[in-house]
Every structure is written in structure tokens, then in C-alpha cells.
Amino acid sequence: MFIPQFNCRMNIEEGEALLPPLKNGEVLRGRYQIHERIGQGGMGSIYLADDIRLKGRQCALKEVEYDRALPENIRDEARDQFLREATVLARLDHPNLPKVSDFFSNGPRDYLVMDYVPGKDLRTLMLEARRKKTFLKESEVLSWADQLANALTFLHSQEPPIVHRDIKPSNLKLMPHGLIKLVDFGLVKILAPEEITITIIQGQGTALYTPLEQYGGSDVHTDIRSDTYSFGATLYHLLTNESPADARKRFLQPESLVPLRQINPAVSARTERAVLWAMSLHPDERPQTINDFRQALLGYRETPTLPLQVRRNHQPPVWDYLTHPPEATLAWSAAVLLLISLLATLVR
């Protein structure tokens, strides 16, 4: 079934007022008592709520409010799509994803109920490191990346595949015991065959982490490789404390993306190559699966040669190859063989 593509933004016409936010203490569906608003986006708010039925449990309510300027039949189609996608999300169970436990409608708004995830998001941790004029440890960031790869591989392996479409540091929460959770399913897309979906959430992701194919309000060219780009851009930001040049600027000025090690020399050449590979502008030039990216990032496979525009004016120092595996193994092996050869020559 083909459904017309719409970006259901809250473009409020003159004289049209926004519906007021929920009040603290208000109870929805006879079960969820609003505690406070903890986030706000283009299509509504995110609320922390107490589950009255399960005493002591807190949950996050993701609100979706539709553009009332759209024709009623389009709003109905968008709501039907939300319910279909919420049904799929509610079936997911993975340690690096918050559990979607419920979904419902309340007047013109729809709500997705998820586990509340305590802890700081990675953007906060990165900003704290920046204020201290230091960087997050590469080993720590790669450990988080390994967990994120687990979550995305799980999403992409669903039938049909699920693309998150909004991976960024602020959507990654570090729980007190070290577990990473990929939160906010606001821009999720179910890749149903032969179906063009209605974009029911405002925006197409955060520009700094968004690939070119995700711009313009069309989902036709968005696939699992779009998450790979956002994954790479997120790691770039976490490792350098600097936001990457967005894809539109890079399309016009390819050299505007500064290599990671020019900003943070402590980053290994292997990590830099893998991140820049993931951030290739054309989807065909990126890792084709999250596992391909993970293997390159952690040193289990080679990274393809990067475009000259990315590598220009940046030659890694010899010491980097002597201190980062697997480069270290190859470099020291070559040195030992050379020494043995010299000794053999002298003995003769």
C-alpha cells in the first residue's frame, strides 16, 4: 500500500493555539500520573510519570500531537501509522533499549509509554569533559559504541527492519551500572516493503548527525545505513568535543570535516578511519551493516581507503602505529624481522 508522504509538523496557522502541556499531577488513562515534563520536541513533550498501578515504577511518556492544519483523513492515517509502529516497538526486548510497555490516545494526542532511564546522557558527559579541557577516553567511548552496535543490530534485524533515525549523544543514556540505553523512538521508521510512510514526528533528526538522504521530508532513501552515519557522527562528537560539519556543508565543501586526530591526537588511526568511513556522504560508501562498522572500529577488519578530501594534510605519526593494535603487532613484527636480517648479515 502506498501512503502519501507528509511531514506532520506543528505549523500552527494564524489564530490557531497550541494545546496546553499536561499539568503535574494529571492522570492519564487512569494509570499514569504526570510528575514533571522532562523534555520538549516539535511534536509534543516527554513526561516523567508515576505508574499508579505498579507502585514505585516510573515511566517516560512520549507525546505525539499532530498538525491540526492537515486534512482529517491524513491525520487519521498518521495516527494509524503511529499505532502500527507502537505495536512493533512494544514487542521489542533488548538490554540496550528502553522497554515500550504501553501506548494510547488521549484526545488529539497519542502517547508511547517507555521505561524511564536514569543516569546522564553522553552529551552531558562530553560537555563535562570539554569544560575540564580534556577528552572522554577512547576505550570508554568504544565500549559504549559496542553496546550501541548491539542495539542497532537488533533493531535492523527485525522483520521488517527498524531504523532509529535520531542517534545522537543526548539520546544515549549511561545508567549507573555502566549500561548504555538508546532512548527516544521519536523518529523511528519501520521499513515496511512497498510502503511510503508518513513522517509523524517533526523534523528529520538533528542536523549535525543526519545523513543527506534523510533531509527534505522524504523517507524513500532512508535505510539502515542512515543509522550508520548518525552512529559515526555521534562518535566523532564524543571523541573530539567538537560537532562534525553537517552533511549539507560537507557536500559543498568536502574538506570541512576535520579529521578526528587533528583535534584529539590521542584517538587511534584505526578509530579515526572507521568513524570517517561511517560518515561517508553516499550510503553505498559506508559500512553496509552496523556489524561491518563495529568490526572496523574494534580492529576485526580493515577499513576501506578514505577519500583524499578527508585525509588531506593529515599523516598519522609513526608512534601511533606502535601503540595501537593491530597496527602495533604489524609494526613490531616488521621491526623484529628487520633486526634478525641485519644480524644475519653481520654474522656472515
Sequence-ordered SSE layout with sheet pairings:
Layout: E1 27-28, E2 32-41, E3 44-51, E4 58-65, H1 72-90, E5 100-106, E6 109-115, E7 120-121, H2 122-131, H3 138-156, E8 162-163, E9 172-174, E10 180-182, E11 189-190, H4 224-240, H5 247-252, H6 260-263, H7 269-278, H8 290-298, H9 308-311, H10 318-323, H11 327-347
Antiparallel strand pairs: 1-2, 2-3, 3-4, 4-6, 5-6, 7-9, 8-11, 9-10
Helix pairs in contact: 3-4, 3-8, 4-7, 7-8
Unreliable stretches: 1-16, 194-204, 311-322
Shape: globular
For the secondary structure, the number of strands is 11
Largest sheet data: 6 strands, antiparallel
Work out the radius of gyration. 23 Å
- Which oligomeric form is depicted? single chain
Spell the H/E element sequence. Answer: EEEEHEEEHHEEEEHHHHHHHH
Average per-residue pLDDT, rounded, comes to: 81
CATH class of the largest domain: Mainly Alpha
Strand order of the largest sheet: 1-2-3-4-6-5
**What proportion of the residues is helical, as a percent range?**
25-40%
Total count of domains: 2
- CATH superfamily annotation of the largest domain: Transferase(Phosphotransferase) domain 1
CATH architecture of the largest domain: Orthogonal Bundle
- Kindly identify the CATH topology of the largest domain: Transferase(Phosphotransferase), domain 1
What fraction of the residues are assigned to beta strands by DSSP?
A: 15-25%
Number of helices: 11
**Helix-and-strand structural type:** alpha+beta
End-to-end separation: 80 Å
